Amino acid sequence: MQTEPLTLDPFCYSEKFHRFITTLSEENFVISFDWVSWQNEANRFITYPELLTLADISTLQKLLTTHVRKERFCSGYMANMIENGHFLAILKRLQVIRTNIILEKTDISDESNMMQQIEIIQGDITQLQVDAIVNAANSSLLGGGGVDGAIHRAAGRELLEECRQLRRCETGEAKITKGYNLPAKWVIHTVGPVWKGGNYGEDELLASCYRHSLTLAEQYQIKTIAFPAISTGVYGFPMERASKIAIAEVHQFLHDHNSPEQVIFVCFGQSAYDCYLRVMQEFTEK
Ligand code: ADP
């Protein structure tokens, strides 16, 4: 189908062009630059339109200005640029840049929202009013010392009964019971690795404890969950290394999932607390 060629009034006489230039100026598009070299530069983009896909915003501003100004000397030039799609290609590139800026902004706010979902406190995990607390259990699930002993004492004998029915839990895995006399509704029992120097898959097993516990929490629609520093007591995992793994795993899980809403790291004592805060600080600065 034959269409009428597009015509535009010459720039210097046209009201429309006058308004267009005014708008460009208001949006900072008309900027002073070396006209001759930019005319050559603009021609390069016409010859190789694929260059536009890499053009930054100031290049696009100069290009637009060059084309608009050229209309002053070559009547019909802009109409041609519109008709051959070059003008549209510039606008599309601007749109891509704009979308990327919006996406980057969204990423930053997502990231800070995610960090707000993580809290570090000092205290006794058995006292917390949360949906679930995590127990650093041993594979028999029949109670032990440290945080495990404290949780069983606070929850009462019924917890031991339910744990007995669960039989064992392998290292790196997790099982869930009710919280009984605890303020928390659920207890997620996970078995951390015993530290043997770091070459026996300890890091991955510890990471797996966090992942499996969070997966169970998600399945049970648990909104708030508190973790002790798994494996860092009797099992001897170095605190700094363990806290890096804990924070990285929780961060990754919250990035990939919508639940839980709040994760609390409960540090038993000042030095654990200081360590978690330091590691968290380093993590957010990355
Ligand atoms: P593991 O055998 O996995 O090392 P522990 O219970 O010995 O488990 O220690 C795990 C972490 O829990 C240690 O950092 C310890 O200081 C901490 N902890 C001990 N009791 C409590 C408690 N009541 N609340 C929170 N953390 C605790």
Question: Which properties best describe this structure?
Answer:
binds adenosine-5'-diphosphate; 10 helices; 53% helix; rod-shaped; 11% strand; alpha/beta; 6-stranded mixed sheet; 286 residues
Structure report:
With 286 residues, this protein is an alpha/beta fold. It is built from 10 helices and 6 strands. The protein has helices at residues 15-26, 35-47, 57-73, 77-83, 86-116, 146-155, 157-166, 202-219, 239-256, 270-285; strands at 118-122, 132-137, 174-178, 186-191, 224-227, 262-267. Strands 1-6-5-2-4-3 form a 6-stranded mixed beta sheet, with helices on both faces. The longest helix has 31 residues, at 86-116. The chain is rod-shaped, with a radius of gyration of 31 Å. Residues 124-126, 136, 146-148, 150, 192, 228-235, 266, 268, 272 line the site of adenosine-5'-diphosphate.
